[in-house]
Description:
Elements: E1 5-12, E2 14-15, E3 18-19, H1 27-41, E4 51-57, E5 60-66, H2 69-85, H3 93-109, E6 112-117, E7 125-127, E8 141-155, E9 161-166, E10 170-175, H4 178-182, E11 192-201, E12 208-219, H5 227-238, H6 247-254
Antiparallel strand pairs: 1-5, 1-6, 2-3, 4-5, 6-7, 8-9, 8-11, 9-10, 11-12
Helix pairs in contact: 1-3
Amino acid sequence: MKNTAYMEIKIDGKKDGKPLLPDNLDIAEIREILEQAGQLLFPNDKNRPTITYQLLEGSVKHRFTTTAVQAVIVLNALIGQINKQGSLNDCDDKTVKGIEYLQEQVIDKSYTIDISTSTAKSNKLHLDKTTQYRRSESLWVDVELYLYGEITEFGGKTQPAIDLDTKEYGIVQIRTTKDSLKQIENTRLYEFAAVRVQAKQNPLTQNVDKTSFRFIDFAEYVPRYDEEYLNSLIRKAKKSWEDVPDVDVWLQEVRGYSRA
C-alpha cells in the first residue's frame, strides 16, 4: 500500500442561521474549494498525481489525500513560513490566489478557516476576520514582457482573452478587450506567436505573476536568433530610460539593494 498524506481545510460558521454542516453546504462552495485545493498542493505541476477528496463533519472538513507526500510536506513548511512572516510575499502566485480566496470567504460569510496537513496537525494557518494575509503590492512592479508560444484560445464573450501555450510558463491567459481583438486581421488560432504583454513582476525574486498578463500587441515571431531584430528592440526600449540619470542606481533601488 502506498504512503499517503493529506491537506485539510476546516471551515466553521453558520449558514441561514444554522451551524455549517456537509448537509447544507452548497455545491458551488464545494467546487471552489476543490479548485483552490489543487493549486495549494500543486501550484506549478501540470501533471500532478491523483488527489482524492472527503467531505467530513466538524463543522465542515475538506480533506484532500495524495500519494505525493513530499508536496504535503512542502505545504506544511509553507504554512509555518506564512505564520512566521505574516504575509504571502514569498508564495507562488497560485498559492497566493488560493489563500486570498479563502480569506475573502472568511470576510464575506463570517467563517473561520484552518488549513493544516497530516504531517504536522498542530501547524495550522488560521483565517478569520482579523487576519489579513495578503501579498504586499509594493513589492510588485509593472513590466513589459514578450511571450512566445502557440495560441490555443482566442476571444471570449464576457472576459476576452488570448490563451498562449508557452514553454516557460505553461498555458497562460492574456487578458484583453473586444476592441483590441476586433483590430486583429485574423484570429491566429493555433499559430505560434510572439505577444507583447504587461505584467507584474517581483524585482527581488524576479517571479512573474502569471495571472496579471495584459495584451499590448503582437510582435513579429522570430524563432531564430536575429541580432538586428534584438538591437531594434533595445533601441526602442532605450526611450523609456531617457529620463533616468543613472540606470544602474535606479535598478539597484528597484531591486531593493543599495550601493555601499
